[in-house]
Amino acid sequence: MIVCSCNVLSDHDVRNAVTAASDLPRNPKQIYGCLGCSAECGRCARTIKTIIDEALGACAKECCSGCPHTRQAVSDEPAQETAPAFALAAC
């Protein structure tokens, strides 16, 4: 299913980008970067975030200190703070 009509990205593209990336993208901006594009209208951002969360499973909700992705989760905190601004700007 196409989730981003501006960049013609499917849900499979997003899932593949999540699982193939070595540093696990955790927000739509990182997914766009992995796929070599950028957000246009932003309507797909929520859907992409949902797909990321589903693909990462429990790790997306809560990384424990022993999780190999903890370093990435800590470095993404500023990006998560700016996510609502991105969503509002896209409206």
From TrEMBL:
Pfam families on file: Fer2_BFD
Iron as UniProt keyword: yes
Leader sequence segment: none
GO molecular function: 2 iron, 2 sulfur cluster binding; metal ion binding
Keywords of this entry: 2Fe-2S, Electron transport, Iron, Iron-sulfur, Metal-binding, Transport
Gene3D superfamilies named in the record: BFD-like [2Fe-2S]-binding domain
Domain BFD-like [2Fe-2S]-binding residue range list: 2-54
InterPro entries registered for this protein in UniProt: BFD-associated_ferredoxin (IPR052371), BFD-like_2Fe2S-bd_dom (IPR007419), BFD-like_2Fe2S-bd_dom_sf (IPR041854)
Membership in a protein family: Belongs to the Bfd family.
Protein name: Bacterioferritin-associated ferredoxin
Species of origin: Bradyrhizobium retamae
